[in-house]
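Class prep. Write one:
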Amino acid sequence: MSLNRIWQGALAATPDKPALIVDGTTTSYRALAEAIDRSAGKLLALGVGSGDRLALFMRNRAELVELYFACFRIGASALPLNHRFQLDEVVYAVDHCRAKVVVADGPLFSVVATLPEAAQSIDRVYVHGDAPERATHRWADVAGAAPEAADWPLVADDQPAMILYTSGSTGRPKGVTHTHGSIFAVASARVTTQQLSAEDVSVAATAVCHAGGSIGVSFPTLLAGGTVVILAESTPEVFLDAMAHRPTRAVLLPAQLLDVIDHPRAAGVDF
């Protein structure tokens, strides 16, 4: 079964409940499901299908989660690239796993503008959101209709879902493949061990292009039917602002936590 089962329970039970909150913008479960299907239809129109890899070069934003699930919907593998990568690092990753297409957000486009000339596997880079003038391919301009419900590709539990690259501290980064079944098992285990419920509001304070922010925080919270507050920037000010959403859970790196505690505003914030 596809990893899209993660959000389908909440969609059926509470379609208008906030699924994602990013930078003051709320996306309901219904809106998220519709966006996932639209993006999945666009990927199919671009020739990205079961067994293919889609590279995602994006900062923390709702569309990154949307595109994860769009890949899962059609049996493609999502390749989230570290948003701090430079061109040579992007080239290595996309060629190493033979990604077909890259979707980048506007502020990161300058890093990958020449990627089609530098990488063997990539033909086009699509820009999501505000695109610089020199960006010739915009995600918003891709035409594609979502299939009927019965026509979505069948996806097996052992089918690859995500390829996450290691830090490369002991050599070249290694692409670690996670299947639909392995990711769902992790999400389910976290729901059980952390006793997550639909009442939970989780803060994804780390990068959602990493396993921690996606598989560790966002996916389990959506499986439980809760709300994920994704920090657009990893700063203590943005984290403190997120407390207005009354979160019940958060995952931070030790340095992040120390910066929050030491911030002058922290004493006046209700945690």
Q: What stands out?
A: The mean pLDDT is 94.
